[in-house]
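Design review, sub-item: ligand-bound model
Attendees: FS, YL, KQ
YL presented the inputs for the flavin mononucleotide complex:
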Amino acid sequence: MTVLEYFIISNILKKVKEKFTMENKVCKILGIKKPVIAAAMTWITNAEFVAAVSNAGGAGVIGFNAGVTEAATDPVVAAENLRKQIRKVKELTDKPFGVNIMIAPQLDPFTQATLDVFETDRPDFVLALPIEPANPEIYKRLKELDIKIVSRPMNSTVENMIAAEKAGADVLICTGSEEGGHAPEINVSLISRFPEIKKAVSIPLMAAGGIADFLAAKAVCAMGADGIYAGTRFIVSKENPAAQSVKEKIIDTKAEELIHIPANPGYLYLVPNATSLECKKMESDGKSREEISAYYSQQGSFRTGMLLGNQDEGFINCSQAINVITDIKTCKEIVDELAEPFES
Ligand SMILES: Cc1cc2nc3c(=O)[nH]c(=O)nc-3n(C[C@H](O)[C@H](O)[C@H](O)COP(=O)(O)O)c2cc1C
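KQ shared the predicted structure:
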């Protein structure tokens, strides 16, 4: 093959790939190139990381406690922190990005303050975590502000997913119990849950929970997913603000070693350390999930373990899919890998 022939063929292939992703429903709705969203993760999804994902063609989401090292107890302070993060992302990219928001039955002062920020500093979409029965007023306000809603009910039951669709979500995420973060109270894996939800809803549906490489992305693409929502894989990226020791620890830990504990809410998969082992002991001793969560909160949980990298206190939380995470990649490499099955 001559250089010219090679150049022509690779350009045709590039155009075909672009056509596929441009026709992807999630890409169309969110205005992104690749149907991959890096999950909102408390403390470790700051502006620089979010912009790196969005610049890679996917979409980043500013999470709770983004860009700070101390939790804001005052809603006004939390809102100003968020405003700074939104402005920072906009300095670093002109591509779409999201902000994590809880949609509880009652409008709490933190969510109200977040909505106030959106009056002047808007993200392109929110990554909503509805707590059913989710407050319809919040959905309405987001619609009035022309902000797209990607909704991820914590328990992906048919009932909860349909409720989110009816309330005004533009995109839904179906989450399996193998996920990182607070895994669902109802213990159903993604492969068992996804087909049921795909049949029940009519808006685009992304998949989440244990997706950390090309093969897992390909599997959910084959099940009819419209895109990937991944957290743990992105922790082990060059641009993620988690401590370097956390990234290395996730690479070195095996799924078989993870400590599974009741949390408030749901469950957590934790890397073995003093805090996670004590939580497991508390569970065997018959302590309640409230007592267990009070203990790990006092130890500093996500902040101390993951952002500050203190592995004697706090904890390192991740999904079950860590055995396929063997190196620290750039966000662009991860977005490209997870988007690949959707491009052919
Ligand atoms: C360390 C960590 C913190 C998380 N924090 C949040 C959060 O604050 N809000 C949220 O909606 N989801 C949170 N999640 C869940 C993710 O948004 C997402 O559902 C999950 O990471 C997907 O599964 P995966 O980790 O297997 O990719 C967190 C996940 C992790 C690993």
